Amino acid sequence: MATTTSSSLLALPSFRSNCNQRPSFKVRAQISGDKATSVEPVNGSVSVSNLPNPKGSEVNGKVKFQREDEIELLWDDGYGSKSVKDYFAAAREILKKPDGGPPRWFSPVDCGQPIKDAPTLFFLPGMDGTGMGLVPHQIALGKAFHVWCLHIPVHDRTPFQGLLKIVEDVLRQEHATRPNKPIYLVGDSFGGCMALAVAARNPSIDLVLVLVNPATSFERSPLQPLLPILEMVPEELHFTIPYALSFIMGDPIKMASIGIDNQLPAGVKLNKLREKLTNSMLPLLSELGGIIPRETLLWKLKLLRSGAAYTNSRIHAVEAEVLLLVSGKDRMLPSQEESKRLHGLLKNCTVRCFKENGHTLLLEDSLSLLTVIKGTCKYRRSRRYDFASDFLPPSKGELDFALQELLSRFLRNAVSSVFLSTMEDGRIVKGLAGVPDEGPVLLVGYHMLMGLELGPMSEAFIKEKNILFRGMAHPILYAETDSTKEFGYMDWIKVFGAYPVTATNLFKLLSSKSHVLLYPGGAREALHNRGEQYKLIWPDQQEFVRMAARFGATIVPFGTVGEDDIAELVLDYNDLMKIPFLSNYITEATRDTKEFKLRDESSGEVANQQLYLPGVLPKIPGRFYYLFGKPIHTKGRPELVKDKEAAKLVYLEAKEEVEKCIAYLLKKREEDPYRSVVDRLSYSLTHLPENDVPSFEP
């Protein structure tokens, strides 16, 4: 008879070995919240020791953890340090001793101790049942969540509803302990069915579901005609079935690509990939037969069929927030097609498609799962997402990826940005020394065409001052209406701190002493018409001055030039609105963003600008120039909060400073001997790479 357990406190008995061998895989058991225990192999067995005050070090062979209040900028997320090879190593440790059950929970030591007020994340595995599917993501997730993984032993025969009972028991226990915290369920394939079913049965619990190629479409699987054949394969030939299925379920090349640096030359990358495929990846696939024996595979297929049917019959009752991650090359399930169905059925569903990945998305080279959760604004520590308090700064790996893939090395070298700033005594110096290190700081300036200045500016602040400024973003970036949307640029700017332009968000960010970037001209300035380059299109209201004064923020005006050296605007808003189908598309794309307002009193073109892609012709690149003007202090000036006339004078002072910065840069760039990309390239060929290309003297 099948057995189940409702306990969330069982350490895996299969993590035992003989006294002559020390297991390399470690787990820890933990109730919830702050009290942690560590499960370590000692003398060939597993022991549990209480850690009431973790310290983040190893003492007497015991791993201890240090809780962090917040994550630091450019922290190490560990993505790429673990791969599918580590998945198989962990699975071998679990399967050393035959175990008939019951299913139980464990927490990997790699996850460490999360930040303060971190929510809990429960991982529900796919067909393998090992619970090791998060191996490449454990270090990153462990910073942001209390991570627990469900292990379903190979010989366990708990039915689908019995598994749901196990998940529900620990879910309700966690909810009772921390009722105001969201609970995350990450469901991979079959685990996606479990997550949806549990959510349907528990609508009153605040759940966030992260579904990875959920198996709700199992009845439409391309493998359906082959399933009867599996029952006829003799036991001695069963090892060939998991091996063959591995090529259908996942992409071995994508799996082997984890941890290979994209900046390496193509030939070196290919050699490393070949070595990983031949020396580790392909031989490891033969071990799947041990992870999923014949009788277990047949049982899991029956379990999958009954689970998918059960879930689909109750999917209408799901109230939870859902993030759906699907693969474009899933040969096991029609995941892309299923994403459209689920997006239409679920009340609050966000979809991201990874077109080059297979069914085993979490074990393949794509993105860190935490990055995806952050980029879709799904990470929260209370009932509602807060753009200020719930933001997690980008990791070193995320910055490297963004610089390589989004802000390409070619573009960065092509514009070779020059940064200048103004000191308190009025001196203009190279670099960002004139920008205050301590917040709150409000950066206000000119928005170049299509926001071209943002990438180099963000990189400079991070690298020179170790500061991530929080930039405003148009509300359309937060609209989720597409069931085929890929994780792309719009998501990455959220990873790097973009927030919707609302007075509430500006209030929260300044109150937290952040460096905040605000463009008073907004989208209208970034999408200006022909002949309007370097013209400030600001509203008449001075609301940002009064908001800054409320928190004693320092206002730093800045100017940027260079858009006319990289592209020529040939089709502006007025031109595009004369083309019927483009006019309708622009209007439809922005119709749902009216609920977001920063300027409640504004009117006219600045307040109501619609988004569009202007028609531009690229030029041989020139250079970007930035000048941050003299800081304007509002601390100790409480009259600015209520006195509109006094605030207006400061507003005009900031606007005038921006105009002076632009005029200064337009004049001084004529003195730059390396303004042309040809001259900069010549300089680079004759100097060491670490030498920056010089510019004019300020």
TrEMBL record:
Domain (AB hydrolase-1) ranges: 120-365
A Pfam family assignment: Abhydrolase_1
GO MF term (any one): diacylglycerol O-acyltransferase activity
InterPro entries the record matches: AB_hydrolase_1, AB_hydrolase_fold, DAGAT
Protein's name in the database: AB hydrolase-1 domain-containing protein
GO BP terms: triglyceride biosynthetic process
Keywords, in A-Z order: Acyltransferase, Transferase
Record family assignment: Belongs to the diacylglycerol acyltransferase family.
Protein origin, superkingdom: Eukaryota
Gene3D superfamilies: alpha/beta hydrolase
